[in-house]
Design goal:
Blueprint (H helix, E strand, L loop, with lengths): L1 H31 L6 H18 L4 H23 L9 H22 L17 E4 L2 E4 H23 L1 H11 L1 H6 L4 H27 L5 H9 L1 H7 L5 H21 L7 H19 L22 H19 L4 H26 L7 H15 L1 E2 L6 E2 L1 H22 L4 H19 L6 E2 L6 E2 L6 E3 L4 E2 L2 E2 L3 H23 L2 H11 L1 H6 L4 H27 L1 E3 L5 H14 L4 H28 L4 H19 L8 H9 L6 H19 L5 H22 L1 H4 L23
Antiparallel strand pairs: 1-2, 3-4, 5-6, 7-10, 8-9
Helix pairs in contact: 1-5, 1-6, 1-8, 1-10, 1-11, 2-3, 2-4, 2-8, 2-9, 3-8, 4-22, 4-24, 5-6, 6-8, 10-11, 10-12, 11-12, 12-17, 13-18, 14-18, 14-21, 14-23, 15-16, 15-17, 15-21, 16-21, 22-23, 22-24, 23-24, 26-27
Length: about 725
């Protein structure tokens, strides 16, 4: 009985902290219609800031708490709304999600920049470990009592705010019709900023309270994921009811501690199961939610606009890409080719997002997790040979892709009932489950019936050899890179052809208006199931190539943050374009890592630290900064690039001069007169100077209104459903 009470009290305290974080999620969503995926990273940053004030600079605890909870946290929340979130109206769900993901990744990178991850930091409970008292014979620390009391008071306070005050009722009305609220004397911008400020404070309080309760040292990713676990609690109340949210948080906290206390020690998977439990609960809750009614088209279009090229132009650009890579291979060393191959593999995974999200409007936040599944299947069932002669067989790749497609079909089951945010949360939960339960399962277990030892991810690392397709052996870095690019081009052309087919038009109709598509006789269940399976298969193929290019993969290769970064960069590039997938994949797998490595090497060469160290850290934050600015251009970068360079076709002299300058720079590198990084710099300068020169020579060509490219289709209508608090 004593043990049961101990775990019950610990579970209630943990659940109370989850409830505090989940209340912040409900508050911001109910007033702005934006789900804040950055809630966990805001809590993490607040916890590190409190540690810095309290232990780094020896401030008194009340002063440190005041500075974080009353000043910095609400200031951060308010600034996020005023500077970023306010510009996200009339954007699609995926844009809103990606912007908050960008903020999350940016805060993580900022924290790792300020506080060295290699230095351990611990946070003591309020009033110390010795401040405790007994409840039914069980010791309870004052810190735990404060956490439980704060959770209850906050739940009561937000409930009263929403139901008994003019400000709270105005907040609830804000998301439905801000114009009508303003006509009735309300101030929508001020109310939304206030809700985000309160949400920032609640996230900060949860971050400060959780570490002394969970134990261990402050860790950027662990803290972020701990508070992200509160999403499951928020979904208990469907992002509306504070009481159901708090009850769900308590149930979640109790379940975690009971697993810790009562699962047999011999179950080696129990630890991973406890870590993944909140996301398992989230997935189950999302499946059990009442089915949303099919939505029709709203009066307002979102600002995303995607055009579809002709198959002929896709083939031409694909051939040019292959030729460009073949030329680059002549001046790249083996390490550079391996790095670029990983970028192309990420781009292939990103193509799965182009199909699923860009064409069909279904959101997947865990594309790399499907790559992990295919990699595991190939490792166990798809290898032949031994030692340096070991290779991935073609049948192994086919098997891995087929299994991944079947898993995609299973994950599509929630998609048959969910859309938008709920579907994004379901795929997020799936990604975390794969990371914790499959990739994290490193201890051999005795399988029943066959009685053999088996581990999904033995020793926490898999050695993946290169594939071999008949006479084509990808052991050579050059051959591997060329083959990967050809695979990307073939899939990209296939996707363009698919989008222009009747199947693609049905996907576009489903994305535009599911209700209208169903009324016209479309089988939405078949469409969703097929597109999820095809998307998962593409991601699985890209994952196998990524693992083979990496040679050795670990749990960090498939962590959920990698998927989130890839999704963000693909949306930034333009998730409705094959070129957007190429840009997102290369940036995720090659671009920023190469920049960071280069700047770090320059810093080392110049004595360490200083300017180059700052630039290296800025390059880590850069992907997130790009994602945050997506609200200004939700269609992505690719349409802007096309619009910038298209007029050059009418200024052929300037275009020829730019091409000639690039050829000269390439010849200088090929003849060893100029280094590779100078070639990159020269290419960047030529890319910038060419349209500038073209505008100076023929300004009238650049002032024309460029709409839809010849031969392309009008962009499908994307609508924003009404959100209710």
């Amino acid at each position: 009985m004593q043990l049961f009470l101990t775990y019950t009290i610990l579970g209630l305290v943990t659940g109370a902290v989850y409830g505090i974080a989940a209340s912040g999620l409900v508050l911001t969503y109910a007033t702005s219609g934006i789900f804040n995926f950055a809630q966990g990273s805001m809590a993490m940053l607040a916890a590190f800031t409190y540690w810095q004030f309290r232990y780094g600079w020896s401030w008194p605890a009340p002063l440190a708490l005041f500075a974080v909870l009353v000043v910095l946290a609400p200031l951060l929340g308010g600034l996020l709304y005023v500077g970023i979130m306010r510009g996200l109206r009339e954007t699609a769900d995926v844009t809103k999600i990606v912007v908050t993901i960008g903020i999350m990744l940016g805060l993580i990178a900022l924290a790792q920049w300020i506080w060295n991850p290699g230095t351990p930091r611990t946070d003591a409970p309020f009033f110390g470990d010795s401040a405790k008292f007994k409840v039914f014979g069980v010791f309870v620390t004052v810190h735990e009592a404060i956490a439980l009391g704060c959770g209850i008071l906050i739940a009561m306070g937000i409930r009263l705010l929403f139901t008994s005050t003019r400000t709270g009722i105005s907040m609830r009305a804000l998301v439905d019709n801000p114009v009508l609220l303003q006509l009735n004397g309300g101030r929508p911008a001020r109310l939304a900023a206030l809700s985000w400020a309160l949400g920032g404070t609640l996230a900060a309080l949860a971050g400060i309270l959780i570490t002394p309760i969970s134990g261990g040292t402050l860790d950027v990713h662990v803290l972020t994921l701990l508070v992200l676990d509160s999403i499951a609690a928020a979904m208990f109340g469907r992002l509306r009811s504070i009481w159901l949210t708090f009850a769900g948080a308590l149930v979640l906290g109790l379940a975690e501690t009971y697993v810790l206390g009562y699962f047999p020690v011999s179950w080696s998977w129990a630890s991973n199961f406890r870590i993944a439990l909140p996301m398992i609960v989230l997935f189950v809750v999302l499946i059990a939610l009442p089915q949303d009614r099919l939505r029709g088209a709203a009066l307002l279009r979102t600002r995303e606009r995607f055009t579809v090229p002709t198959v002929r132009s896709a083939v031409i650009w694909g051939v040019l890409l292959v030729l460009a890579v073949l030329a680059l291979e002549q001046i790249m060393n083996s390490e550079d080719m391996s790095t670029l191959t990983m970028g192309i593999a990420f781009a292939i995974i990103a193509l799965s997002l182009t199909l699923l999200t860009g064409y069909a409007g279904e959101i997947n936040l865990a594309p790399v997790s499907f790559g992990a599944i295919a990699t595991i299947i190939v490792f166990h069932l798809g290898l032949s040979g031994a030692g340096v002669n070991q290779r991935i067989t073609p049948w192994g790749i086919v098997l891995g892709v087929a299994v991944t497609a079947l898993v995609g079909g299973l994950i599509a089951l929630p998609a048959l009932r969910l859309r938008g945010l709920y579907l994004a949360l379901a795929t997020l939960a799936f990604g975390v489950i794969v990371s914790d339960m499959a990739v994290g399962e490193t201890t051999p277990e005795i399988l029943p019936i066959v009685h053999v030892h088996f581990s999904i991810f033995p020793n926490g690392a898999l050695q993946i050899p290169p594939p071999k397709f008949g006479p084509i052996d990808l052991a050579s870095e050059k051959t591997f890179l060329t083959t990967s690019v050809c695979i990307f081009v073939l899939i990209g052309i296939g996707l363009v052809a698919l989008r222009r087919s009747s199947y693609g038009r049905r996907l576009s109709a489903m994305k535009d208006s599911p209700a209208a598509a169903a009324t016209l006789g479309q089988k939405l269940v078949t469409l969703k199931l097929s597109v999820f399976m095809l998307s998962a298969a593409i991601a699985g193929l890209g994952g196998v190539l990524l693992s083979a290019a990496s040679v050795s993969v670990s749990d960090t290769t498939f962590v959920i943050f990698v998927s989130l970064a890839l999704v963000m960069l693909t949306v930034v590039g333009g998730i409705g374009h094959v070129a957007g997938a190429l840009m997102g994949g290369v940036l995720a797998g090659t671009g920023f890592q190469a920049l960071t490595s280069t700047f770090n090497n320059l810093g080392t060469d110049h004595g360490g630290g200083g300017f180059w160290s700052v630039v290296a850290n800025l390059s880590l934050v850069a992907p997130a900064l790009i994602g945050i600015t997506l609200g200004r251009n939700p269609s992505g970068v690719v349409p802007d690039i096309v619009a910038r360079y298209r007029p050059l076709w009418h200024v052929k002299g300037v275009l020829a001069a730019g091409v000639l300058a690039e050829v000269v720079a390439y010849a200088l590198v090929l003849s060893k007169v100029m280094g590779n990084w100078y070639f990159v710099l020269a290419t960047a300068l030529i890319s910038i100077a060419t349209p500038v020169a073209g505008r100076a020579a023929r300004p009238e060509e650049f002032h024309r209104d460029v709409t839809v490219a010849p031969g392309s289709q009008d962009p499908p209508l994307v609508v924003q459903p009404s959100l209710r608090a």
